[in-house]
Amino acid sequence: MPKVISFINYKGGVGKTTTAYHVSSSLAQHYRQSVLMIDIDPQTNLTFLCGSIKQWERRKTNIGTIKNLYDRFTGGQTLDVRRFIWNDAVVIGHYPISGLDLIPCDIDLLGEDLGGGQIVGTFPTMEALRRDSQRYLRERSFLRVPNKKGCPGFVRGRL
After folding, report:
1. What pLDDT digit, counting tens, does each position of 50-97 carry?
2. Contact in structure between 105 and 66 (CB atoms under 8 Å)
3. Cα 48 to Cα 32, 51, 86, 102, 126, distances in angstroms
4. Domain 3-156 has CATH 3.40.50.300
5. Do residues 38 and 132 make contact, with C-beta atoms less than 8 angstroms apart?
6. Based on CB atoms within 10 Å of each CB, which residue in 91, 95, 140, 147 is the most buried?
């Protein structure tokens, strides 16, 4: 079973995303752990730490973001999380950090309630995302979920 690591503080600007990015990168690069980061903050800071805006636009078009998962959920479709994972999302120089994957967020979700700061939210406490991610995460060692205020219900249950 994968381990969930979440960096939580209700105050903004305290380094949650930056810390989570570096811890995730270190686990993958130095300890050869497989890490799946899930960016549910529409400011997409974690996503942009992993790549340039140009890379994000290309990957958004070719692979998708958590917005596509949200649209699938609200449309009653299966999530198919694997399809939206950016494998080896962080590249240092010309070398990707193997095993450091990302489900990126999307600035198009600004104003949407993904359930991150509540026990119950419109993306049913992220339960659908968690459930569909489990198949992928069984191979993974860590799951990292950054969010600005609070944490999704499925993470709360493991803290």
Report:
1. 988 898 999 999 999 988 988 887 788 887 888 889 998 998 888 999
2. yes
3. 23, 5, 13, 11, 22
4. yes
5. no
6. 147
